[in-house]
Amino acid sequence: xxxxxxxxxxxxxxxxxxxxxxxxxxxxxxxxxxxxxxxxxxxxxxxxxxxxxxxxxxxxxxxxxxxxxxxxxxxxxxxxxxxxxxxxxxxxxxxxxxxxxxxxxxxxxxxxxxxxxxxxxxxxxxxxxxxxxxxxxxxxxxxxxxxxxxxxxxxxxxxxxxxxxxxxxxxxxxxxxxxxxxxxxxxxxxxxxxxxxxxxxxxxxxxxxxxxxxxxxxxxxxxxxxxxxxxxxxxxxxxxxxxxxxxxxxxxxx
Length: 254
Hints:
By secondary structure, the chain is mainly α. The chain contains ten helices and no strands.
């Protein structure tokens, strides 16, 4: 059961990544490749080599494609802002921030992945639909998620830059235009949340600096005194629960 579940998850992610690519990449099926010893005259044509190179390139950037089209951007940026606002330098470490962001991404995206599995992966495994239909069905939930998180200003900007006419509906927006608009929207929203996180810690720094100035202790760095107070405040208000809960609830997953 575990091996079957792992195979299904791997195929689900692979189909999702393939679905985010332009349709022209898969316009023609890959020809069969045979490898033999001593054969010199049956080398694949250049077009075959280019297709193989393209597929290998896609597989090498697959993790980046998966992370940039999900909730990972907002989570990682906000958690990085939180660490800088507290002034704890490398605590928590980058590995913990990336790991927490990754698992929260799978938690948030689970409805989307389940929908892809139900309408694309399982019918494809059961040979009810072909590869082209599976790719078309797999990309729709991802597009719906990105549309739900993309603001109109970023999408309009990218449509103008790409030279496309005003679309009559979301179905006419190309996926390669939607992805950068979604990334810009996520960065904008993450910076807005980061600004709100900075405010209480900035107030503590200002109070500590004012007290030190009034006491004539100008040579003492305020960060040394304010850091314990910021950590105490963060623990007393149960900061991790508030930050993570607000982040997860900020996503509108259908």
